[in-house]
From TrEMBL:
This is WD repeat-containing protein 55 homolog. Residues 9-301 form the WDHD1 first WD40 domain. Keywords: Nucleus, Repeat, WD repeat. Residues 693-774 form the WDHD1/CFT4 helical bundle domain. Gene3D superfamilies: High mobility group box domain, YVTN repeat-like/Quinoprotein amine dehydrogenase. Residues 400-682 form the WDHD1/CFT4 second beta-propeller domain. WD repeats lie at residues 9-41, 131-172. SMART domains: WD40 (SM00320). Residues 311-335, 776-890, 932-973 are annotated as: Disordered. GO terms for biological process: DNA repair; DNA-templated DNA replication; mitotic cell cycle. It comes from Parthenolecanium corni. SUPFAM superfamilies: WD40 repeat-like. GO terms for molecular function: chromatin binding.
């Protein structure tokens, strides 16, 4: 039966008009701007009861035997129902009451006022709670069916959700409606409504769409729209069964959606195009009726608002506030009445049928046995518990979706939008088409497909297009593949799934495609249509994505906590066979969020985006998830979001589409891909320290992901480290520099910190960094020695020296010194064990030394500088032999040679390119000794000359040359400073 909209009748004078149904749906109650409240026995009642409550009646609601009216008397009055006699005042304001809502059980009454306050009155105790925070008159209030939350809208353009118990705001949406300063000037009344059965959804009318939000998490679950509308939405109202949502616009258009399938089931227009200011469903379960009032005081109804096939489902819900019972009790069932009513039915006397329909009935013997065992009181408690049913938490599993796609319920949507191109679907009354276009026209030309099979999923790469449709009552689920580079005559193929098997997700890779189904099968096909392996999924699939030969799978591993998802992911390599590269691991999400997008970065690292806007990157080398950006914070405005397309490690940016006021891009005009930088969510990022740390870790994560080093990235990495050193030293936090060098364990960072300490003359930091560098070098040598043990040569070639290439600098390092025997006799007992114990002890000793350097060793602040200088003495002729790869570093040697060698290494290699590492070190040590000797000679000559001049000018300050020669420490200090200046003047 088609829906019918009756011609409205005049009920009140021009102006704001409100209405509600009585609890049983038999009466329609209205109030208007002339101050009257009218009670109608149906729409066609010509003799309605009218009472005057004031000059203007703004709002009305009814529950039980009470009628609540808000008027210009600045109060909420109580009348009896249906007699309409004054029964008192519920609460008072300093301005007119503009909205009233009574809870489903009648225990709470909420009222909003033009004085920007909301009162919630508990009927039993008559206690009043005040909710203050709106900055303009209140438009509408609604109580959560579970009595936990209160929603309100205001002329200040905001919608708030309050916690009734503590009267605090738990969620706020801004810029929902135009801002006005008076209730009379408001055009959009912004009626917010809760889903009537469980309150798990909240509907808010935005400009051209209705947004549905999930309870507690307040994540947007879906959007409802109608392309036939000409004005903005103003009111919403849920049906009593919780499946249908009605909404009206400023021009009087009323749309009804089936929220279970996101489809419009009825739509009607007003010939006069008047603004609807009140909209309510008839609570009677057998009726499909909506009542509305407009700004001219007219009352109208819409009948048959949803298809007749839904009536049985509506009937099962029952009347509003009727408690649901899991099973009928034996005492409530009248066998005689049932048999009498059905005596003409040949099956009416079937006792077995009656028993099967009422399987919860106990026979008298069973009831007596249970009564004797439990007692009367216990039996009553068991009976009441069984009638209520088990109380289980509501956990909604995230349904499957396609990454980089728009929701299925949209009439114009992107089925996929990636780096290759996009697939756009248009599903309207006039056409049902799929358009395919490419960013690079050399891949393939754009083309269009008639969507005869109602495809709802798509995957696209440079080799082909894959489409899939869900099964229906008449057909099975089908998979279609369109090839771009086929060399035979076949450019397209399709295949049907098994009966009752439905495709939920799909992805296309290099010469293969994957399909996840409701049977938890992962079906693999070649691009030409050959069926490959069939794998089992551990849980319900959420989404798939593929790149080259990698397949990224996300699925539900188990039921999550209330309001949360428990997801896992795995990475498969699809080549000649199927192998697991990353076994099943938990996928981290922000609390109370859902998964929005998955994909691979440019370096084949898995990425994931949740509904809170946190983009995370899985670093394959370490096996850890790291947050790289809070994408929604990149653009001002809470309603603006980014639609992710790709992630680049080398440039540290994200390719995305900015969606203003939505989560998904619009198809018209054509969206453009923009790039936003990574921004690691460090603390105090706006401060100097936080900004430098963010830059360092951004470069560090990018370096960790890149397979080949980038010179520009290394430069940014070291620049950030140098800035951090400088800031720490300027603020007196030198210990941060030492700790930073320790936990990074990067020799370039340590060398940079040491050079900075030398240049800034920070003696204390230089000493500690020098000792830390020596320990790091020794530990690095020990690590290489352990690694070389796996590749030791045969004992017969024990005179050879093994070499291992360092991946960082490409140099060949000797792993064993000349005075250490590298040959090992396999017949010697316990030699390997003794060596292992010795290495372990040495590592422990090095670790203890490092801990002392990092802060446990006490330093005398009044120590003379000569003591510091003596710790940096140059090697003498006796101990300056050419270094070998793993020498035993003596305690009194300095690291000046290492600094000089690093700075002159390139010149030495150019002079002697044929020398090996050991011979090059010998040559460098020889030149370093000669340089040191010449510097000391020059320093001694200069000292003698200065002493002679001082002796002639001032006899009091004269000192003998012999006394000066007895102070070698001073001469060594001067020579070292000159050598130090030479090192840094490149």
């Amino acid at each position: 039966m088609n829906q019918t909209r009756t011609i409205p009748r005049y009920a009140h004078a021009d102006g704001h008009t409100d209405l509600c149904y009585s609890e049983d749906g038999s009466y329609i109650i209205t109030c208007g701007s002339e101050g009257d409240v009218r009670i109608w026995k149906g729409f066609h009642d010509d003799d309605s009861k009218a009472i005057c409550v004031g000059e203007i009646a703004y709002c009305v609601d009814q529950k039980g035997d009470k009628l609540y009216v808000g008027s210009d008397a600045n109060s909420v009055q109580i009348f009896t129902f249906p007699d309409a006699e004054l029964d008192g005042v519920l609460t008072r304001f300093t301005a007119p009451a503009t909205s009233i809502d009574v809870s489903q059980d009648g225990s709470l009454v909420a009222a909003g006022s033009a004085n920007m306050e909301i009162h919630v009155v508990e009927i039993a105790s008559q206690t009043v709670k005040h909710f203050v925070g709106h900055k303009a008159p209140v438009l509408h209030v609604a109580i959560d069916p579970k009595l936990d939350f209160l929603s309100s809208s205001s002329c200040d353009g905001t919608v708030r959700v309050w916690n009734i118990s503590d009267q605090k705001v738990v969620k706020e949406w801004t810029d929902v409606t135009p801002q006005v300063n008076s209730f009379k000037l408001a055009e959009r009344f912004c009626h917010v409504s809760w889903e009537t059965l469980t309150g798990r959804l909240l509907a808010i009318p935005f400009d051209s769409e209705i947004r549905i939000f999930q309870r507690s998490t307040w994540n947007m679950m879906m959007t409802l729209s109608n392309h036939q509308l000409t004005k903005s939405f103003s009111l919403t109202s849920w049906s009593n069964c919780g499946k249908f949502l009605a909404a009206s616009t400023l021009s009087g258009e009323i749309t009804v959606w089936n929220t279970m399938v996101n489809r419009i089931v009825s739509f009607s227009k007003d010939d006069d195009e008047l603004n609807v200011c009140s909209l309510h469903w008839n609570p009677a379960s057998e009726k499909q009726q909506l009542a509305f009032c407009d700004v001219q005081g007219r009352l109208g109804v819409v009948d048959n608002c949803f298809p007749a096939s839904r009536e049985s489902k509506m009937d099962s819900v029952g009347k509003k506030n009727t408690p649901a019972r899991a099973e009928p009790e034996a005492d409530d069932f009248d066998f005689g009445r049932e048999l009498e009513e059905d005596e003409d039915d040949p099956e009416a006397i079937s006792l077995e049928k009656i028993k099967s329909n009422y399987s919860g009935i106990f026979d008298e013997d069973q009831k007596s046995q249970k009564s004797n065992m439990l007692g009367d009181d216990d039996m009553m408690s068991v009976k009441s518990c069984s009638s209520r049913g088990p109380a289980l938490p509501l956990v909604d599993l995230q349904p499957p979706f396609q990454p980089t796609s728009s929701p299925v319920h949209l009439q114009r949507r992107f089925m996929v939008f990636n780096d290759i191109g996009y697939v756009r679907q248009t599903n309207t009354e006039d056409e049902n088409m799929i358009d395919i276009d490419f960013h690079d026209a050399s891949i393939h030309h754009a083309f269009r497909i008639n969507n005869i099979l109602n495809h709802s999923m798509a995957a696209l790469n440079s080799e082909g297009l894959v489409l899939a449709c869900e099964k229906t009552a008449d057909s099975t689920s089908k998979l279609v593949c369109v090839l771009f580079k086929s060399w035979d005559s076949s450019k397209e193929w399709n295949i049907e799934m098994m009966d009752e098997e439905d495709i939920q997700a799909l992805a296309v890779g290099n010469k293969w495609l994957a399909v996840a189904t409701t049977f938890r099968f992962l079906r693999l096909f070649t691009l030409s249509g050959v069926q490959r392996e069939i794998l089992r999924l551990p849980g319900p699939v959420v989404c798939l994505n593929a790149l080259d030969d990698l397949l990224y799978i996300v699925y539900h591993s188990s039921m999550g906590l209330p309001g949360e998802q428990n997801l896992s992911f795995a990475i498969y390599q699809i080549a000649i066979g199927c192998t697991v590269l990353v076994s099943a691991q938990p996928l981290p999400l922000t609390p109370k969020s859902t998964l929005k997008w998955i994909g691979f970065s440019d370096q084949f690292n898995p990425c994931a985006l949740d509904s809170e806007g946190i983009l995370s990157l899985f670093v394959s080398s370490s096996g850890l998830w790291k947050p790289i950006c809070y994408v929604d914070a990149q653009y001002k405005g809470t309603s603006n979001h980014h639609f992710i397309v790709g992630v680049c490690e080398e440039r540290q940016n994200i390719r995305c589409i900015l969606c203003k006021g939505s989560y998904y891009p619009s198809t018209i005009p054509h969206p453009f891909i923009t790039e936003i930088p990574w921004q690691i969510p460090v603390c105090e990022i706006s401060m100097d320290k936080g900004g430098i740390e963010e830059s360092y870790w951004r470069c560090s994560i990018a370096r960790e992901c890149l397979k080949q080093e980038s010179s520009s990235l290394n430069k940014d990495f070291l620049t950030s480290a140098l800035k951090l050193f400088s800031l720490s030293c300027k603020t007196g936090h030198e210990m941060r520099v030492l700790e930073f060098c320790d936990f990074t364990s990067n020799k370039d960072v340590t060398n940079l910190a040491l050079k900075y300490a030398f240049k800034t003359r920070n003696e204390k930091l230089t000493e500690r960094l020098t000792e830390l560098q020596k320990i790091q070098q020794e530990m690095e040598m020990e690590d290489r020695s352990d690694c070389s043990d796996r590749y030791k040569m045969d004992p017969s070639s024990s005179n050879n020296v093994h070499r291992l290439t360092n991946g960082d600098d490409g140099q060949s390092q000797e792993l064993f010194p000349e005075n250490r025997s590298i040959g090992r006799s396999y017949g010697e007992p316990n030699q390997e064990s003794v060596s292992l114990i010795a290495e372990t002890k040495k590592r422990k000793s090095l670790s203890e030394q490092k801990n002392q350097i990092l802060g446990q060793r006490k330093i005398n602040p009044f120590r003379k500088s000569s003591q510091f200088d003596s710790s940096l003495n140059l090697p003498t002729q006796e101990n300056a032999s050419p270094p070998v790869p793993a020498p035993e570093v003596k305690k009194n040697t300095t690291n000046a040679f290492s600094v000089w060698y690093e700075s002159q290494k390139e010149n030495l290699i150019k002079e002697s390119p044929d020398l090996e590492e050991a011979e090059l070190l010998k040559l460098a040590a020889k030149k370093f000794r000669l340089l040191k000797k010449s510097q000391e000679t020059d320093a001694n000559d200069k000292t003698d000359t200065e002493n002679d001049e001082n002796e002639q000018t001032s006899k009091k300050k004269r000192k003998s040359v012999d006394d000066e020669a007895s102070e070698p420490t001073t001469q060594k200090r001067k020579s070292f400073l000159k050598l130090q200046e030479y090192v840094f003047k490149k």
